[in-house]
Structure formats: structure tokens, C-alpha cells
Amino acid sequence: MLIAPLALSAQKFGHINTQELFAQMPEMAQIKLKMDTIQSQYESQLASMNEEIQKKAQDYQAQEATMADAVKQIRQQELQEMQQRIQLFYQTAEQDIQKKQQELLAPVHERMTKAIKAVGEREGYTYIFDSAAMVHIGNDAQDVTPAIKKELGIK
Fold it and tell me: Which pLDDT score, from 0 to 100, does residue 49 have?
């Protein structure tokens, strides 16, 4: 029982806010620019599709009174199919954007994780916790953010 407290006191604990560090990594500016470009391309296409359906809907409403019933049904079906294509495009675009974001962020996350591990091993930390998820951080816990920033080359 006397040995357990000694073993615990020999452990070294550190903390870092990984979200804050992640946002400060230099690659993030380029990733944000790429993601903004991709998103604006999808938004442009979606706006074009919405303009097209609005024009067709207005044409339909303007001519509805003089249309034969069979023509009305065909035009209504066309409008419904266009709406479904827009919804499918929107869903596909969201999935593509998420996939691309994950693809771009994976190497950054991996680099950050390697830096945290390198600092932890080099400086003898038993644990390095993410302070964003911590309820309490004691006075004896050390903020390893400066060491990890140095490891990553962030000022």
C-alpha cells in the first residue's frame, strides 16, 4: 500500500486543447480555401438547378388554365422529377463535401497525433489529456501546448 502512492506520484500528466491546436495548424488555411471552393461549386450548380425549376414552375402556372389534362400531368411529373433530382444532388453534394473534408483533414490530424506522442515520449508524460473534454485540470497538470506547437513548427 505504501508503494502505490509513490508510483502514482512518479507519473507525469499533461493536457492540450487539440481543437485549438488543430485550428492553428498551418495546413488549415489551405484546407479551408479548398473546401470553400468545392462548396461554392456545388452551391452554384444547385442555384442553377433551382432557377431552372422555378422557371418551369412559372411557365406551368402561366399556361395551366389552357393545358389539356394529359399535358398538365406530364408537366407536373416533370416538375416532381426535377425536384427529386435537386434533392438527390443536394444529398450527394453534402456527402462529397464531408468525404473530401475528411480526406483533407486526415493527414493533419495524423501529424498532430504524432507530435503529441513524440512530445509525450520525449518529455516522459504518462498521460496527455485533451483539455477540451476535461472537467477539472489540477495545478500539477502541465500544459504541453507550447512543446507540441514547437514540435509542429507553429508559433
Answer: 97
